[in-house]
Write a structure and sequence with these properties.
18% strand, DHBP synthase, alpha+beta, 7-stranded mixed β-sheet, single chain, two-stranded antiparallel sheet
Length: 244
């Protein structure tokens, strides 16, 4: 019975080989400055995001996300980095604002329909941008935000180099990542950490121009196969994180 028990335990806790291969492909892609497609789960947003490590972002990346994904291009950052910059969740900023009346505060989203609190903070432009919305401008803002992660004085550099409001929304990953929240924000930052990259990622939801809805998992997987982009299932990523 001991042998059988050990076998069962090992079978349960050891990730499936196919998951390991997928993660290796995703890590390799991120390290090369390429995209990964990331699906959260049926019980959450049920959406697939294009993900790229922010430190490698170029205007071409922004263009591809606009044309192939079509959702909102955002910048996800690790919680500890956000704290160094004294960034707050937007819903908390609004709740604490004395400029918003009590009735209007009823509009503030505490919990999204899929069950989680939103991770939006402020939106920014790098001060060297013009309008902030062009592919070049957004790429600069995103890349420089990633570069800020290695700064010796991140807060002062952040204040002197960026302006708000801007055209790149910041998303603050929950402390503890997937142990606390299982959204694209946390999963993409977790993937960056697995790849030993700066824990700052550019993400964009994939939309379907034919149905005017989010792209289905099946269509996203087909797109991934056609363009040789690794496809990571959030449920499997969560399984991996629990083991490790």
């Amino acid at each position: 019975m001991l042998v059988i028990t050990n076998f069962i335990v090992n079978f349960i806790i050891v990730p499936r080989p196919i998951l390991i291969v997928t993660l290796q492909q995703a890590i390799s892609s991120l390290r090369q400055g390429e995209f990964v497609l990331l699906y959260d789960s049926l019980g959450r947003e049920n959406e697939v995001d294009m993900v790229v490590a922010a430190q490698f972002v170029t205007p071409e990346h922004i263009s591809r996300m606009r044309q192939s994904a079509g959702g909102l291009i955002c910048l996800a950052i690790k919680n500890s980095f956000a704290k160094l910059l004294n960034l707050q969740y937007m819903h908390n900023i609004l709740y604490r604002s004395s400029d918003i009346d009590v009735d209007s505060k009823q509009m503030i989203m505490g919990t999204a329909p899929y069950g989680d609190h939103p991770t939006f903070s402020i939106s920014i432009n790098h001060k060297q941008t013009y309008t902030g919305i062009t592919d070049r401008d957004r790429a600069l803002t995103i890349r420089e935000m990633a570069n800020l992660h290695g700064s010796e004085k991140p807060k002062s550099d952040f204040v002197s180099s960026f302006a708000t409001p801007g055209h790149v929304p910041l998303l603050l990953a929950s402390n503890g990542l997937l142990a606390s929240r299982r959204g694209h924000t946390e999963m993409s930052v977790y993937l960056a950490e697995l790849a030993k990259l700066t824990p700052v990622t550019a993400i964009c939801e994939m939309m379907d121009s034919q149905t005017y809805s989010a792209l289905t998992v099946e269509k996203a997987q087909k797109f991934a196969n056609e363009h040789a982009i690794p496809f990571v299932d959030g449920k499997e990523l969560l399984e991996f994180s629990r083991v490790h």
